Amino acid sequence: MTANERERTQLFIGGSWRASSSSEMTSVISPSTEQIFGVAPSGGTADVDAAVDAAREALRNSAWARMDGAQRAQWMRRLADELEAIGDRTAALVSGSNGMPISVAKVAEGKGPATTLRYYADLAEVTATEERRASANGKRTTVVRREPIGVVAAVVPWNFPQSLTMFKVAPALAAGCTVVVKPAPETALDAFALADAADACGFPPGVLNVITGGRDVGAYLVAHPGVDKVAFTGSTAAGRAIGEVCGRLLRPVTLELGGKSAAIVLDDADLVQVARGLSWASLLNNGQTCYLSTRILAPRRRYDEVVDAVAELASSMRLGDPLDPATQMGPVVSRSQRERVEGLIEAGRREGARVVAGGGRPERLPVGWYVEPTVLADLKPQATPVREEIFGPVLVVLPYDGLDEAVRLANDSEYGLGGTIWTRDVEQGLELARRVETGSVGINFFDLDIGAPFGGVKSSGIGRELGPEGLSSYTSLKSIYLPT
Ligand code: NAD
User: Fold this and answer.
1) Would the pTM of this model clear 0.70, i.e. be above it?
2) 94 and 170 belong to one structural domain
3) Which of 30, 32, 285, 338 makes the best surface tag, with the fewest CB within 10 Å?
């Protein structure tokens, strides 16, 4: 992490560094010190115009447009090498900007993007662009082509900025698309790691463009006439707004949105293992991870035991400076996010919650937007903290009677993104997993598999990222009918 990396004055458009059309700068505030961590251009709509133009030009008229999958794969591997080389510095930028514990950031944000790029480079190499098949009537031949869908607008949130950017950029490059990346203002600094890496390896100009801006710039980008596909991760509210725009424009869009996933603890579960697993599956990144199992469902017979185990886990988490390797939980991203989280804890108290862990700010950390890991018991399934995504370190524990009720409670949510099942009997867990209305479920752990589709049902989104399935949303199919 150097001073230059924390003081960005230019955007990366068309393969070169350019001043933003707006002279304004936005500060990135450290959630642990509440001081300015760095600055980046605020960005403006003219930057969007320039970046989309550069991406269209590269799509139509550059060497990139003429490359096959194997050639693109070589470029992607070069980019992965560059990203990996600066990975630890990028991870520190992420931690400093959003409060993610550095031990998590080094893996998810420092190393993860290179791994995802290499995975899609391998796919680019082996995925055929054209397939010849006999026509259904057996008389002719049809060539089915997978063409790049075009210019992709990648709009990303602050919580896992590097990995979520790469979930979009890697399949887009594999498919032969060009991309305009717009990070969240909270994590504008680390976004330029991709631009640095592209610059360092001489990536074909215009294929990757990194601009900055807030909601207005994002809205202008997704509606831009030069964009062919939108890939968005963020809140359900913003996802709905983007979905409406894309619907009107008939523009393909993938939306990865919020969640309120369930952890179903079965009667036979080993609670020591459950508590260890939930530290990751329910509290990762200070509770600011979309797929977390934040509703813990416990069999009534073992309800008190589960409440105690989860409370003990929450109370044992080491809170502190996100840049300290020993820290397990840092602050939440912003003052307003902490106010929102505290408001939801208060709503829980009013609605009858027994606060069995946390519930306030840690006394020994008076500076920084810290929230104690909090566990709320005895709430009704209709209570506000049971229904709303909190996006902070707050868990609720509810009792259930019988597996049917466990499934009913798990599915009693506006969302359907992740989820976990905790049992000694993996087959029984699998049987139950089939009944949960969600995009992904882990049995005795939760860890994204980049080789399998990820996304949500209901208000958690539309479409899937990752795996070979994630590649298909960056291609457009064309059928060419041959006379014989
Ligand atoms: P947000 O929706 O406010 O912002 C996300 C990004 O979209 C930012 O870059 C923002 O500038 C931009 N944006 C906001 N409104 C826009 C609009 N109308 N048009 C275009 N761009 C717009 O979300 P956030 O607060 O940064 O992120 C937290 C949310 O993201 C949580 O709800 C979380 O669950 C969700 N999330 C989902 C996933 C997933 O894969 N499903 C992953 C991570 C986070």
Assistant:
1) yes
2) yes
3) 338
